From TrEMBL:
UniProt keyword terms in alphabetical order: Hydrolase
Pfam family, one: AAA_11
Originating species: Helianthus annuus
Domain DNA2/NAM7 helicase helicase: 64-136
InterPro entries: DNA2/NAM7-like, DNA2/NAM7_AAA_11, P-loop_NTPase
Keyword Hydrolase: yes
Gene Ontology molecular function: helicase activity; hydrolase activity
Protein name (Swiss-Prot/TrEMBL): Putative P-loop containing nucleoside triphosphate hydrolase
Residue runs in coiled coils: none
PANTHER family assigned: DNA HELICASE, DNA2/NAM7 HELICASE FAMILY
rRNA-binding among keywords: no
Amino acid sequence: MNLTTNTHIWQALHSSLDGSKNMKMINKVLQTDSMSKERCSICSIEDTKKSDTLNLQEAMCNSNLNPSQETAVWSCITARECRHQESVNLIWGPPGTGKTKTVGCLLFALWKMKCCTLTCAPTNNAVLEVSKRFVSLVTGLLEYDTYGLGDIVC
């Protein structure tokens, strides 16, 4: 059994217990404050540019997401647009619930918003699956197959 990954995670979390600035983000992720707000009280999806919202809604309709998946994507997008508080969104669920599809659609939406995004996954296979979903959404949008994918690196 290889414990290297778990050891690195433990060291990263343990090093933050000394009161460094990383503890704030860890508390946010772990929800140690039961009163923590889910959304910024200042920002809302209505504050997003109307043209961007319409383009993203069109992309969502073409992705065939279920309501829970759509909510997850919109939650990540609104959190990204907020300039008032830091946030981390976790997309989780048992196998077969559409996490890969949701992340692929989220990456597509962020790509349409011209956001530079780094995506990580625990296995090479997971990276490949998310990449396939994302690239299939992007290539479906292109008018001609001869266009390159620009700055997309998989």
